[in-house]
Design brief:
heterodimer; A: mainly alpha; Na+/H+ antiporter like fold; 17 helices; globular; B: alpha+beta; Alpha-Beta Plaits; 5-stranded antiparallel β-sheet; 4 helices; 19% helix
Amino acid sequence: MEGIVLALFVCLVLAIITKYLSIPPIPFYIIGGVLLGKSGFALVTSDEISRFFAQMGLIFLLFFMGLELNLKRIAANRSAVLTSGFIDLNVNMLIGFVAAYMFGFSIIESLVIASAFYISSTAMAITSLIENRKLMMREAESVIWLMVFEDLVLIIILAVISAGDQNPLLFLLKIVGVLAILYAIAHYGKEFLISLLDRSDELPILFTFGAVLTTASFSMYLGVPETMMVIALGAALATTDPDAFEQHARPFKDVFLVVFFVFFGITINLSAGVDMTMVLTISLLAVVSKFISGILTGIFIHESALAGIEIWGNTIGRGEFSIALAALYGSPLVATVIAAMVIVTSIVGAFTAKYCTGLRKWMAAPWRRAPHHRGH
Amino acid sequence: MALRSVNLPGVGTKYEFETDKGDIVAIFFTKTGTIQMYTLQQGCHTPSAAEMTPMEARRLGNILTGAIIEAESESVEIAFSALADLRITIHTYLIPKSVAGKTIEDLQIRTKTGVTVIAVSRRDKNIINPIPSFVFETGDAVVVIGETDQLKRFEREVMVD
C-alpha cells in the first residue's frame, strides 16, 4: 500500500511539471515507474492491490475509448476514415512487423510489437491539436479520424490476439452474444439510463463504475476478452448519453490510468540485458514509418505531400494503447521495447507537434519562390 | 453564409461558417471546456486563433449580437474579479446641444467628473481616444469610461441640456 502512495505522489509531481511545460505526461510516468521499480531504486514492487488498480486503469481507458466510438458518425464519414486509415495501418504494421521479426522476435511477439508500433496515442494527438491551436487545419480532421480508425483496429487486434487457441466459432458466438446483451440493454433501457444519469446523488457514478466492472468480470467468466467488451460497453452506452458517462467515468480513468502507467514502468525488468541498438532502431523506425504514412496520407487526401508533415507531426507519439498492448500480451522483453518506443516517440512527438507547421512552411518556401505559382 | 456543425470524436463540437466574402470563422467547443475561435481570411493559409473561457466566449457573443452597440445610450459594467473586484462601467451618451461646439478640454471632463471619453462615434465613423482639443458636434455618440459615481457626476454636470 505504501508503494502505491509513493508512486502516486511521484506521479503527482510529474503531472504538475509536465502540465506546466505542456508536454505529454505518459512517458514521464513510465520513466518514474522504472526509477521506482526493480530496474531503478527498487522502492516499490507491484502487489495484489496495485495490479487491481492498474487493471482498472486499463479497463476505464478502453471504456472511455468506447464512449467516443459513435458508429453512426463513423459510417457517415466512411471515406475520410477509410483511405487514411488503411494507409496508416498497412505502412506502420508492415514496417513494425518486419523490423521486430528481423530482430528475432517470434511471430506473435512481432505482431504485438507491430500493433503497438502502429497505434498512435489518441490522447497526445488530440491534446497537441488543441494546445497548438491547429483544430481548424484540414489536416487536423484527418488526424482525428485516423485516431478513430486506429481505435477500431485495436478492437480487432484485441480479439485476434486473445482468441488464442479457442474454437474460433464458439469464441465469435460468445462475443456476438455479449454484444447483443449490451446493445439490448442500451436500446431498451435508454429512458431508464438517461433518467438515472440525471440524478445528482451517488447513483450515476455508482452505476457507471458497476457497469464497467460487471461487464469486465462477466466477460472473463465467459472467456471473451474483457478489454474488447468494455469498449463495446462504452460504444453501446454512447447511444444514450455519452457526455454524462464520460463525466462519471473520468475520475476513475484519470486516477487508475496513472497507476497503470507507473506500475507498468515499475514492472519493467532491465536486468535481463536489453539490446540498446535494437530498442533505438525500432524507436527511430517508429518515427520514420509515421512519416511515410503521413506523407502518403497527405498526397492521397489533401493532394499535398507537405500536408503529410502536419499529419506526421501530430501522430508520432505512441502512448496509452501501445502500453496497454504491452501490458496485456508482451513478454518482459517486448514490454521493454514498447516502453522505450513510447518514451522516444512521445518526446519526439511533443516537439514535432509544436514545430511541424514551421517545418512545413520552411519546406514550402522554395515552391512559393518558383515561377510556377501553386494554387494552394 | 453556410453554417455547418461537426462533432469531432474526442475533441468536441465544431461550428464553421463562411461569410459572403469568403472568410471562414470556426468555433470549437472542446471537451476540456475551453472555446477556440479561428478566423481564416480568404486567400490566406494560416488561420489565427484565440482561446477563450466560457465566460469570455459569452462576452464575445454579447458583443457580436450587438447588445452593447445597438442602443444609443447604453452601459456595460465589467467586473475584474481577480483585481480586488474592480468594477468599471462603460457608458454611451448622445451629445446634447449645450455641449456641441465645445472641446473636451473646455468641458474639463476628467478634472470635474473623473470619467474619460474613450471614443466618439460620428456619422458611422469612430474616433478612438479623442485628443483634448476634439470638438463635439450634435448627434455625436460618446463612449465614456469610469466608476458609477463618476458617471452620475458626468451626467449631472456635463450632459445637461
